[in-house]
Amino acid sequence: MLDELEISLLESDVAAEVADSIKEDLKGRLVGTSVDKHVIGEHVRESLIGIISDLFDGAGAVDLLERIRAKKDDPYIIVFVGINGTGKTTSVAKIAHMLRDSKLSVVLAAADTFRAGAIEQLREHAKRLNLKIVAQNYGSDPAAVARDAVLYARSHGVDCVLVDTAGRMQTSKNLMEQIEKIIRVVQPDLKIFVGDSLAGNDTVNQAGEFHEHIKFDCSILTKNDADARGGAALSIVKTTSTPVIYVGTGQEYGDIRPFSKETFIETVFGSEGVQGTEAAKSGGAPPAGEIPETVRETEVAVVNSGSSVEEEEMEANKRREQKTDAQAAKEREQEEMEANKRREQEQAAEQSPHDGKEHPKGGDPFDGIDTKDIEAYLELHDTPPPETDDEAERAASKIKSWISEGRQGKEAKGSWKGRFRR
Q1: Contact 28, 51 (CB under 8 A)
Q2: 83-116 confidence digits (pLDDT tens)
Q3: What are the binding residues for GTP?
């Protein structure tokens, strides 16, 4: 029975180590209790739901709007962290949209001065939302950008500063040092980790690394509309003891909603799980000393030893091994797909035109190109900002060729009609 509940958690994309930890907590809660054998399954299930509910409750809650309104003398500063591709910048825009609709003034800080197109991406969001953005050139000190945004907010009476930071792999020492510097300089009121609901265990590893370095306060999980399981939320809460405050549910600015533990429990255990939350909180079945005599004759004790428990544990280990083998096969298949995709991208990059100059791996392909030339070229050709490294390489090559040819057609258009696509 315990094994079946553990598999339910694993199938909901809960990290394996988190599922094991919750299983041990469940054993500790059950040992020594006495339950009618006819309802023992329901009692175990309600106990598990109670443990999960307590985890979410123990992580606390963050009422973002209330916190911002409570800080009246100074702007409320929020720093967003996370790796590339999780939807971090889009989440910044969604939060900005929510605050604007709540009659709060906002300024955006484009502190991602590393990724090609990052500044243009945030500037396009600011344009659509009619918000002020503070930005500098690529390669500028991100902490200086964040500081300038805070100074602007203070001098103009702005309620909130949202700082978008560079996203690279959580194992990048330079990234962590950069973010730590931003935090030292601006002293944010809130640090939000943005993770991908679809990334499974990798999201948990990312959260653990970021929390170890900067002790973020809460999380936002993106792409929740494409993930019916939601186990990443439980894993992050268990690993970092911080709450998940919002989940992204689509591509529009309004597609963000507060995280609900009831929705999570219903997803994992069905609609009966929500009803069982209250029963689990109230203690489920009564203690042995309070069981009626009519029930006492058929009660069973949940103990930590005995042949039945040993057999159940052996069966649990067997099923867990089967589950692990299936997961390993799935992971190998996913790795092969990603490797093929990378090879295709590399081949496409080799076939695309370039200026004959090689850029160091991980470097900025726009290095040496004036930001005004980048913006002018994008305006002239109705080209959206690049979203991937390959697109950035190709765009940089075309811009350099355009510059070398005398910037032909530069005055053909007087305004940017770029169409940002996310």
Answers
A1: no
A2: 888 999 999 999 999 999 999 999 999 999 988 8
A3: 82-89, 164-168, 222-225
